[in-house]
Design a protein that fits this description.
Elements lengths: L4 E7 L7 E4 H4 L13 E3 L7 E3 L5 E4 L5 H5 L5 E9 L4 E10 L13 E6 L7 E3 L13 E6 L5 E7 L5 E7 L10 E10 L6 E11 L7 E2 L3 E7 L7 E4 L2 E2 L9 E5 L5 H6 E3 L5 E4 L9 E10 L6 E11 L7 E7 L3 E2 L7 E8 L9 E4 L6 E5 L4 E6 L10 E10 L6 E11 L7 E2 L3 E7 L7 E4 L2 E2 L9 E5 L3 E2 L2 E2 H4 E3 L5 E4 L10 E10 L6 E11 L7 E4 L8 E5 L8 E4 L1 E3 L9 E8 L5 E3 L5 E4 L10 E10 L6 E10 L22 H35 L8 H11 L34
Parallel strand pairs: 1-7, 8-14, 16-23, 25-31, 33-42, 44-51
Antiparallel strand pairs: 2-5, 3-6, 4-5, 6-7, 9-12, 10-13, 11-12, 13-14, 15-18, 17-21, 19-22, 20-21, 22-23, 24-26, 26-29, 27-30, 28-29, 30-31, 32-35, 34-40, 36-41, 37-38, 39-40, 41-42, 43-46, 45-49, 47-50, 48-49, 50-51
Length: 750
Amino acid sequence: TANGQVVYSIAEETERGASVGNIAKDLRIEAATLSARKFRMITSSSKQYFNINATTGALSVNEPIDREQLCELKSVCLLNYELVLENPLELYRMEFKVLDINDNSPSFPLSEYHINVPEFLSPGARFTLPNAQDLDEGTNSVQNYTLSPDEHFHLEMQTRGDGSKYPELVLKKALDREQQATHRLVLTAKDGGDPPKSGDVPVIVTVLDTNDNAPEFEHSVYRASILENSPSGTLVVQVHATDLDEGPNGEIRYSFSNTTSADLQRMFLIHPHTGEVTINGVLAVQRPLLEMLIEAKDNGAFGMSSTAKLLVEITDVNNHGPEITITSLSSPIPEDAVPGTVIALLSILDKDPGENGKVTCQIPENLPFQLKPSLENYYSLVTSGLLDRELISGYNITITATDLGSPPITTQKTLWVQISDVNDNPPVFTADTFDVFVEENNPLGAFLYQVSASDLDMGENGRVSYMLRNSTIAGNALASLLSVSLANGSIYAKRAFDFEQLRSFYFQVEAKDNGSPALSAAITVNVYILDQNDNAPAILYPTSQNGSVAVEVVPRLADEDYLVTKVVADDEDNAENAWLSYHLAHSSDSTLFHLSPHSGELRTTRSMRSTDFLKHKVVVVVQDHGDPPLSSTVTVGILLADTLPQALPDFDDSGEPPPLLNATNIYLIVSLACVSFIFAVFLLFLAIVRLCHCRTCCCSSCCCPAEEYEKYCYSVHMLPSSHLPPDMLEVTGVGKLTHTYLYRASVGLG
């Protein structure tokens, strides 16, 4: 283990469940955190050959590995895995070296081989035998060949110019076709495994008596180099062989040996007469060096052949663009992520070898992100600045990968990284204070005002709720006066306000979001209560007690503009609702007194006279200027006297304004009028009866005494009181006599 990479060696065909190692111990990772960190193994292989136990970190075989199927003819077989862990994001590389075991026997391409040998050949003649193929590598591959015993042939190993070995059949004794026309041999190939494995093929030798020279190539090994994007038909190389025979026995035909793979035979063509090797189609290979065997065979009745090796080097061209793979992506990321936070892990690979496969990678410079190289071919996308979701809620990050080929090939891939919200913005009001005006005597639940705050955050972080901050207003808890809607900030009155008791107050409304932790802001609301004309003026002076009339004493002969009294009133309302004016609603003598409408001073209009009544009564109305106006009245009794009497007179029967003609008064007036009318009619009737009686009986004083006659005469005629007898000076009725005549009505019975 070194630099975040661990290398394991495992033999192929290891059974399922076999232990390979412990990844947690080898990488010094706590095994208990593997599951929580969402570990995963990433590989380009189509099969998942290994498992990791999430509890113990044990690494075991999930699928047996066939090295020959996985790596074909490669000398070193490697499996690369990446272990990705999150929270924090980490990447480890695991390399598995698959060791070969001797699980494949050598085999020959054909089920049997035929060799034609002219009978006239001398001992020492050589014939090429087929090479066996063994998919194993190293000592487990083919190591030697053996030939079944035969008196005419033996086996020798030959070495080509590149060091490879091949078997040859060597004639050690002259042949006699008439004695034996066919020789059946068995060629056996053995590998170096433990225990070794082998494969054999029958070799049938037919003895001919013609064509005793085999074609010979100019070179045992031909080398060529072509570009990997060479078009079909491109000449690779031209091979040439010669045959010392003449005629058909010296005519040579070229072909690929049966030991050349079928894929290569389809990929290349060889002209049978010229020996030109050309490309057939597209070079779909990943190996830089291709190996083929070319056979030259003459046209003799029993054609002879020889082989040469063709090595073709594929020169890479920059025909592959970089491949960008998103191995891991964390999106969305919180806006408070600190610089250096890993967002994504990228794998960038170019299939071209050499400089053509080297890649540079970059992202736009105006983004708060940067790419950092990680392991080989891996980059980490990390934050390089502060993020603010309220300004930018997401980023399209274009990753540009360019190889170093000529011309370079560029690949782009765009990542969408979303920024998630955190509660970093408190609610904000449009102003620090608000002024609210409300009229007093408002109804319960009256809407006063709606405060509103905005929050730039989203979701629950941006959902604002409102509440009243605890405070006391005029000795009362704020909650007993007001309520606020939790959802929309509407403020309502929970009771009626009285301007005369509370003219203004202020309180604070708090706006709080639903983030965690929650952020808040407060606004001050000033409430001004507007006055209504709900208070009538209060008379402070003069005052009456127990319903009696307030009495003011004025000198009997007071001068003009004498101050009788000053009416003092107060109104608890404000402004024009408390502007007072004074008026005389009633006065027993309108010519005697006048009232100042602004000061409330009651003064005499003229000087007092001896003939003026001693008692006067005035009614003063005090009225405000509200809408509608309210008023109060006070009755003032005025006594004309030079000294204060011991007992104040009663003013209830003096100076009263005439009764109003309401229904009750009208009824009383009609009743009194009817009674008076009936009584007058009755008196008239009695007088008529009496008159008639006197005229008939004693008109000449014959029937009536003189005294009675004289009384009668005065009863029906108006006479001055000085002419009446003293016994007739009687006062009847109630009230003052303002005339010097007395009317006497009496009824005398004769």
